[in-house]
Amino acid sequence: MTTKLPHRPRGNASRPPAAATIDVPSFAAAQLSLLATEHAAEASEMALLASAHSPAQLARAGLAVRNLLVASQRTGMGGKTVVELEGDPATSGGGEKGDAGGSGGVIGEHGIRVGDVVGLQSQEGSGESGKKRGGAGKKEKQSNADKGVEGVVVRVKQDAISLALGKGDDRDDADLPQGRVWLVKLANEVTYKRMKQTMERLEKLRDSDYTPLMRTLFGLTPLSDIPPGAEEGTSGDTVKDSEWISERLNDGQKRAVRFALAAPEVALIHGPPGTGKTHTLIELILQLVICRGKRLLVCGPSNISVDNIAERLAPYIKEVPLVRLGHPARLLPSVLSHSLDVLTRTSDAAQIVQDVRREMDAKQASIRKTRNGRERRAIYADLKELRKEYRQREQGCVSSLVKGSKVVLATLHGAGGHHLKNEQFDVVIIDEASQALEAQCWVPLLTAKKVVLAGDHLQLPPTIKSLNSKATKEAKDKKGKGAKAQVEPDPKAADAAQPTTLETTLFDRLLGLHGPSIKRMLTTQYRMHSLINEFPSAELYDGQLVADDSVKERLLRDLPYEVQDTDDTREPLVFHDTQGGDFPERPEDDVPLSGGLGSLNESRSNELEAALVKQHVESLVGAGVRPEDVAVVTPYSAQLGVVSRLLREAFPGIELGSVDGFQGREKEAVVLSLVRSNPEHEVGFLGEKRRLNVAMTRPKRHLCVIGDSETVGRGSKFLKRWMAYLEEKADLRYPDASSLSVLG
Ligand SMILES: Nc1ncnc2c1ncn2[C@@H]1O[C@H](COP(=O)(O)OP(=O)(O)OP(=O)(O)O)[C@@H](O)[C@H]1O
Q1: Could you tell me which residues belong to the region Disordered (predicted)?
Q2: Which atom of ligand 1 is nearest to 664's Cα?
């Protein structure tokens, strides 16, 4: 199949001018103000949570764990002190949600995960006896003064939680709280600080300081030409047909790699769901490093996006020496052996660092033995000195490891750390770029020469908490534009050039600024049955997204294990239409769910829909489909809570998630509960095309949609067409509400 590609003009005469140029200082100033609003929104959400809820409430919401004791402390990676916390056996709470201790020492269910930033506080004076800490009085003052210490969770076991203390460099161990303690999840400030520093630097640069890449990214100079024949594979410096490293690359993927190699400053790789975006990036990285001797910085907005690439590069470690920066607690186990922290301990150069470490460990052990205050302080003073020495030696080791690497992998904000201060890279690659804030992308870009961005701007952008705040609304009203305007960037739109919302990503903005000729789209997808593929392809990807032959007819009944042929397992697309008003939604704004601050927002649930979900899952599992191959996805956290109550025990392996949380994932079968059903036909944030795109493109062989076509179909033109598509192409069912039970 030949795909029509946007023409990338050659020669300056034929090039259309960029839609708009950007004044860099005002761009940076606008970003700083938007970031400040966002940070304030985040901070006030946190403060609200902490002040309006007692530790007991926070524990019940999965955001805190109470009744802990410091069981041991030692020196962990990076010279940080690691403390292990266990339940206090003298308490009665063990096993209750968010409570540790009791005779079994078990810590009840909680939402604290490895990698979280947490505060460790003394339990005395925290007003934890069920009283609200926001209430006036002595207790509040006391707990505010006693902020405790901060740390990153490095290990979570059934009966213990370990923290690496400190987020910065100069942690004074002496303020480790004594006695019974509790820990609470905190906002991670590092990302915000790095973005702020970056934008401040950008704001101060003079025109003469701008790099050539920066100039093209702001439309101050046009893009340079791509050499003739480079994309077709016929020019001198391109990949010849015999030179591909992966044996499995389709024509679109090859074209994207050649395009990204040939583009002098910037290339966008647009990877719709399941099209092998990461696979393509791996080939690009190998071509750049192995065949062209380049040095790369590879980044993504999240640790998982970076680890995905690190994992897939690892088999080439001999030809591609790589190092992964970042806190080891946040890395996938399979990537740990390439992490800077681990290499700093295991490489030959590391021995000299280890000597100091042993000495520090001995000191740590002695602290717990002494009860004498003066002795303790003396030990802490020694430790401080040792830590300084440790850092100096470690610095030498680290810098030789980083310099010896051809590929450095880090999160976007991690790329702003001191390890990379004077490092030079030929190309910066940013994966999941449409999930990153523009300011985040600039962290590695201030000194870059060339950038390749990969992503899909038609899936969800990064979450913006301040999106509905007053300040952002006012800015939008001024421009007369809503969030919808960002869905498909219009090259002529002024605010694509000068964004007034953080939601406009660098990926969006560059498409607006330079037009589609700077991107190549991957069009063959290896995930969905053609009936699941058809609607998103037609609506969002100009009909270009095609299911590969290997997947286009795959059904649940063809799974490689025994599955019966039933009405459900032979259907790729099922629609339970709950229209008629018998499946009403319910607002839900009271109970916070475990593990999410966002879940405190007003949400919706629909119990009868949840009962229908259960019925459908029972039918799939009854036919032999493994629960691990099924996911239930819904846009509303309150509905997720209801579905969890109905399904969690009966189907332990099943995955239940929010649409936003499921981005980037896939399952053999997905049941999607749309929730909204009301006489006003309000659909709320279901109206966001990109959210629906994510929701409907997760399944491989079976998509079951449960929703009220009357309500949903009136939400937007897009939703109307989707409902019409389902009515025409899906296996339609009209469920009877009276036959359903909402009891677990
Ligand atoms: N050319 C190809 N031939 C056969 N299979 C392929 C090809 N390219 C990718 N795949 C398969 O498609 C699947 C998706 O690939 P990959 O994980 O690279 O996708 P992605 O686009 O990064 O995913 P996402 O949708 O999460 O962004 C993988 O199972 C991969 O093996």
Answers
A1: 85-106, 120-150, 469-499
A2: 26
Residues 307 and 355 in one domain: no
Q: Please indicate whether residue 274, judged by its CB atom, sits closer than 6 Å to ligand 1.
A: yes
- Residue range 674-690: mean pLDDT, rounded: 90
**Whether residue 374 sits in one domain with residue 270:** no
Position 25 scores a pLDDT of: 94
pLDDT tens-digit readout, 287-343: 999 999 999 999 999 888 999 999 999 999 999 999 999 877 677 777 787 888 777
Domain stops at, among 386, 405, 424: 405
**Residue 274 alpha carbon to ligand 1 centre in Å:** 5
Confidence check: pLDDT of 350 > 80: no
> Residue 150 falls within a domain, yes or no?
no
In ligand 1, which atom is closest to the CA atom of 525? 12
Distance 301 CA to ligand 1 centre (A): 20
**pLDDT for the residue 300:** 95
684 lines ligand 1 (CB under 6 A): no
For residues 267 and 78, give the distance between their C-alpha atoms in angstroms, rounded to a whole number. Answer: 36
Distance 114 CA to ligand 1 centre (A): 28
| Smallest CA separation from ligand 1 atom 15, residue | 276
- Domains in the chain, number: 3
Quote the domain boundaries for residue 373.
336-405
| Shared-domain flag, residues 559 and 510 | no
534 and 440, same structural domain? no
Are residues 622 and 633 part of one domain?
A: yes
Rounded CA gap, 400 and 446, in Å? 23
**Is 661 found in the same domain as 539?**
yes
Q: According to the model, what pLDDT value does residue 441 have?
A: 97
250 lines ligand 1 (CB under 6 A): yes
Q: Whose CA is nearest to atom 8 of ligand 1?
A: 276
Per-residue pLDDT averaged across 121-129, rounded?
63
Report yes or no on 373 lying in a domain: yes
Q: Is 252 in the pocket of ligand 1 (CB under 6 A)?
A: no
Residue 271 CA, ligand 1 centroid: distance in Å: 10
Q: Is 377 exposed, middle or buried (0-12, 13-18, 19+ CB in 10 A)?
A: exposed
The alpha carbon of 277 and the centre of ligand 1 are apart by a number of angstroms equal to 6
- Collect all residues with Cβ–Cβ distance below 8 Å to 736 and sequence separation of at least 6: none
Q: What φ, ψ does residue 383 adopt, rounded to 5°?
A: -60, -40
| ipTM at complex level | 0.96
Residue 281: which residues within 8 A CB-CB, separation 6 or more? 269, 309, 429, 431, 452, 454
Pair (606, 461) in one structural domain: no
Residue 482 within any structural domain of the chain = no
pLDDT higher at 676 or 101: 676
| Alpha-carbon distances, residue 105 vs 100, 386, 437 (angstroms) | 7, 35, 42
The verdict on 639 and 670 lying in the same domain is yes
Q: Is this prediction's pTM over 0.95?
A: no
Which pLDDT tens digit goes with each residue over 386-435?
A: 888 887 887 788 888 899 899 999 999 999 988 888 899 999 999 999 99
Note whether 84 and 73 are within 8 A (CB).
yes
Contacts of 636 (CB under 8 A, 6+ apart): 603, 604, 605, 658, 675
Question: Domain holding 417: CATH number?
Answer: 3.40.50.300
Alpha helix locations (H) across 263-371?
277-286, 303-313, 340-346, 351-369
Q: If you measure from the C-alpha of residue 524 to the centroid of ligand 1, how many angstroms do you get, rounded to a whole number?
A: 9
Residue 57 resides in a domain:
no
